[in-house]
Amino acid sequence: MRHLAAFPILALAVILQSAIVSRISLLSGYADLVLVIVIGWALQEGVTTAWHWAVLAGAMTAVVTSLPWVVPLAGFLIAVLLAQALQKRIWQAPLIGMFTVTFAASLFSHLLSFVVINLSGASIPFSDTFSLVTLPSVLLNLLLAIPVFWLMRDLAQWVHPIEEEE
Amino acid sequence: MRDLLSRSLQATIIFLVVGGILALAFGGYFSSASNWFTGMIVDTQSWFSTRYLAIQDFLAAPRDVTSLRQRNAELESEVAALRAQVIELSERASQVNTLAALVDYSRANPESSYIAADVIGRDPSPFLHYIIINRGSNDGILRGMPVVTDQGLVGRVDAVIADAARIQLITDPLSAVNVRLQNSEVEAVLSGSITGDLSLNLIPQDVTLEDGDLVLTSGLGGGYPTDLIIGQVINIRKREADLFQQASVQPVVDFSRLSIVLVITNFRPVNIEPLIPAVTP
């Protein structure tokens, strides 16, 4: 039953993202709370539902955003893929993993959005997008990464309590 | 008998002496002596009084500090409550001002009917400029309806659900609005950008643009009503090699501080796409 915590947590994250985080901008970028939460969750030890969280987060974000639903979904799935690939390699330094995956997944998510919007007919220059949107957003995501990681760690311990050996 | 007389005489003498002394004192004959005496008494009393009060303060001080601290906490709590009240009231005053301005706007433009809506969110993607309002199809909102504030054009309804709608701002990179310049009666296309800047495109080279020219909706294309204010021309880019000149537009609406908007409900956008001839290779 504790796995169902994903629903209220991700719903709350999407609401907070739309109502608050999207209004706190640095240049023209802002943080992606949902993405950071999904990454934070995927990097926790013993978590088996990271893919579920990614799909759920993608579905919920698709309701709010006007981007095609594939874009946020693909962003979250890639984030989980990166997190799980990296978790096995640097499991002793989870914060470094958090920063690395946040950085890479944010870049990928923005690159995907950039491509899709350009294909939709808008002509947005790459240099402006990178310097005014992507870099500030990545910086804000990295700032969010630390508190979110510890929150997700507590949540993971609650959802997957470690069984004591007898 | 002799004892009685001697006692009466003694009492009379005492009364006379005391009475005489008092009479002399009231007459001012003992002023220096009485001043010295009075001063000595006052000094002595002051000395005792000061010491007593000091001792009383010393003994009563802890109780006073406790009560003062308690009182201070009460006052701090009251100040905090009043500050919260001030913030709430200023928020309400700001909301009332905004609503009053919107009411003034709707009175000044009686040809349109409006529904006011609160802005409750923004698009999670920084690449897009959309807002979410708390009115939807249950309130009669339909896709394509224009959205304004008392200052000017905001955008149009892009998607609607029962109790909410998503508005595409004119600053969105995928937004294009047909506009005209009030002074020169020139028509152009206003485009948004990823940074939220507005630019005028497709302005013929022979047109003379000036800073401060007012930009209004032209109504061409059927997407927006005519003569909605958008902003002013602020930066003109004219190069001989280009087919068209460009200009930046300073919007009249502060898109970063949108809190309440008006949806024009009696405007039905016209879809002219079927009328545009298909390009054949």
Description:
The complex is a heterodimer of chains A (166) and B (281). The model of chain A has no long low-confidence stretch (mean pLDDT 88). Chain A has six helices and no strands. In chain A, 70% of the residues lie in helices and 0% in strands. By secondary structure, chain A is mainly alpha-helical. Chain A has a single domain (2-159), classed as Arp2/3 complex 21 kDa subunit ARPC3. The radius of gyration of chain A is 16 Å and the shape is globular. Chain A has helices at 6-19, 33-42, 50-64, 70-87, 94-119, 126-159. Chain B is rod-shaped and about 155 Å long. In chain B, the strands form two sheets. Chain B has a six-stranded antiparallel beta barrel with strand order 1-2-5-4-3-12. A six-stranded antiparallel barrel of chain B has the order 6-7-8-11-10-9. In chain B, strand 6 (176-181) and strand 7 (187-191) form a beta hairpin. Chain B has three domains: 40-108; 114-169, Rod shape-determining protein MreC, domain 1 (Thrombin, subunit H); 176-252, Thrombin, subunit H, CATH 2.40.10.350. The mean pLDDT of chain B is 83. The relative contact order of chain B is 0.11. Chain B has 281 residues and is of the alpha+beta class. The N and C termini of chain B lie far apart (161 Å). At the A-B interface, helix 1, helix 5 and helix 6 of A face strand 1 of B.
